[in-house]
Recover the amino acids of this structure.
């Protein structure tokens, strides 16, 4: 069996049990090696971090965003019910000493955010120790999404009453699922943007890029990553994790070929010399669930110990989504 950059080789075995499952895929990355390319998700080496909140179809957990601190890892993630029961009904904040076993320390509901649904949060700790939680909020009765910000001294202290809109979107576009990195004095943001002119096409998405001096007021710089007609990511692309390298930027992204693949995006790899201009690599996803199901919303956490953790949402054989983690050697 051989693989190319951007091409994953998938074996059919799968274990639905909590903990380690058999090896599912073996990715061989040929030269030139890219940062991140050597560390694509490998579900067979993963453990379940958070189980779905129920057993009914459409009951999911995922869309993680994690931060390491002196006491371990703080994780924010979305909880979802079936569409007729409210979809993304809450974002939970949890803490873990080992990165696997988490204790919930906070919960923010869609009702508290005056949102029809919540999707991927972005959890950030500033250089002066302030915690920030960016929340993707669906505007009630529409296809519109916006991003709101809550700040707190501790991750258990986020108060929805103190929220403020930082990415409002507009009548033409919905904005959600931000990925935020503070680098060399500049805040960088990649967010999925959805067109609203035709409701039937609102699932389409590009990833747009913005910068900020303070992480609150943002300036947009246009589209960073676009779908590729005729490819596996033709319907939409959503950057999920970004790393700055000496040569530019490398990113993971979620992609889908059609509207039917909404909620079952697979993971691809992109790169660019500038953060606002990324190009997809390869003709296939680099990571997916067994049988081609969704593996999305990857996040990467540096542990500062020569290791890192991956967190991502994956589709199980029964159709439910769970949140998994992998411990890896730190990227260089």
């Amino acid at each position: 069996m051989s693989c190319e950059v951007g091409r994953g080789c998938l074996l059919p075995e799968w274990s639905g049990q909590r903990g380690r499952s058999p090896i599912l895929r073996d990715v061989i990355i040929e030269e030139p090696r890219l940062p991140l390319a050597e560390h694509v998700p490998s579900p067979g080496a993963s453990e379940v971090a958070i189980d779905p909140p129920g057993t009914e179809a459409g009951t999911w957990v995922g869309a993680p965003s994690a931060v390491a601190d002196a006491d371990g890892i703080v994780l924010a993630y979305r909880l979802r019910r079936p569409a007729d029961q409210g979809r993304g009904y809450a974002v939970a904040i949890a803490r873990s000493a080992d990165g696997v076993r988490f204790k919930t320390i906070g919960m923010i509901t869609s009702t508290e955010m005056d949102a029809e649904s919540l999707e991927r949060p972005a959890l950030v700790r500033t250089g002066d120790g302030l915690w920030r939680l960016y929340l993707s909020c669906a505007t009630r009765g529409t296809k519109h999404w916006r991003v709101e910000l809550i700040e707190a001294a501790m991750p258990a202290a986020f108060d929805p009453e103190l929220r403020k809109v930082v990415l409002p979107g507009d009548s033409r576009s919905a904005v959600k699922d931000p990925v935020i990195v503070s680098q060399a004095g500049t805040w960088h943001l990649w967010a999925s943007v959805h067109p609203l002119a035709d409701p039937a096409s609102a699932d389409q998405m590009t990833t747009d890029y913005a910068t900020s001096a303070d992480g609150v007021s943002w300036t947009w710089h246009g589209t960073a990553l676009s779908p590729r007609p005729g490819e596996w990511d033709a319907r939409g692309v959503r950057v999920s994790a970004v790393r700055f390298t000496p040569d530019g930027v490398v990113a993971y992204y979620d992609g889908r070929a059609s509207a039917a693949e909404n909620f079952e995006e697979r993971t691809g790899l992109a790169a660019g010399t500038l953060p606002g201009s990324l190009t997809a690599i390869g003709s296939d996803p680099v990571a997916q669930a067994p049988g081609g199901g969704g593996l999305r919303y990857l996040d990467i956490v540096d542990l500062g110990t020569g290791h890192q953790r991956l967190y991502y949402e994956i589709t199980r054989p029964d159709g439910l989504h769970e949140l998994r983690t992998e411990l890896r050697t730190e990227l260089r």
Observations:
- Residues 131 and 155 are 6 Å apart (CA to CA).
- DSSP finds no helices and 20 strands in the chain.
- The chain has one domain: 37-327.
- The longest strand covers residues 173-183.
